[in-house]
Design a protein that fits this description.
CATH class: Alpha Beta
Radius of gyration: 20 Å
Largest sheet: 5 strands, parallel
Number of strands: 10
Order of helices and strands: EEEHEEHEHEHEHEHEHH
Strand content: 15-25%
Number of domains: 1
Helix content: 25-40%
Distance between the termini: 49 Å
Shape: globular
Number of helices: 8
Amino acid sequence: MIAGSEDVLKLGPLEIRSRLFVGTGKYKTFSLMAEALEASGCQVVTVAVRRENLSDRSKESILDYIDPKRYILLPNTAGCFNAEDAVRTARLSRELLDVPWVKLEVLSDKKTLLPDPLGSLEAARTLVAEGFAVLVYTSDDPVMAKRLEEAGATSVMPAGSPIGSGQGVLNPNNIRIILEQATVPIIVDAGVGTASDVTIAMELGAEGVLLNTGIAGAKDPVKMATAMRHALEAGRLARQAGRIPRKLYATASSPVEGVIGT
């Protein structure tokens, strides 16, 4: 384990050591998914309750490839476009998987997959009242991020860029403001295209990064998963170390006093 990665992230009733959260969708095979999860070093994996067979265990299921002794399942409400469906899906996830938390997604439309702010806030309030630890996906709007925190969200998860777009962190200034205001963990979610995107998110001060397509859609998902793991650790260590200030002009790295004359 690389130094600096041992610290624990507390999310509701759970304590997490790996700050890389990895999705389970879009892989060509379940076996390839399992290899990528292993390579990523992740501890938490997300599962779309509406899209996976989780109830009929007589048939092949994604759960057959996820070792419950090694991974913590984080069900999500992907594919929900209103608060009612998201709440219903979260309740189903608790019944099927017996887990205390949910990643809440309420999307606005099928083309952009942007979060519906009002639907997300409504569903978050309902689920918090029902005892869920709610990790809520949202836009990079600092005002909405604060409203979700005030609603009782365990973690607020602003998008770096649209889901599956691979554009990375498009608006680092908004992420900085969200982080400055937050009193709950901020996990950057969505839009990761490559390892440097993860490093940037962590250098900004995020507590973690959640991604799926950046690994599953890569030419070699296993190698990309390895890259994402190291990128997260590098970004967090760099944040802890403190970067040098940016300057307009050069600064010599060696002293200029006492230089031997020519």
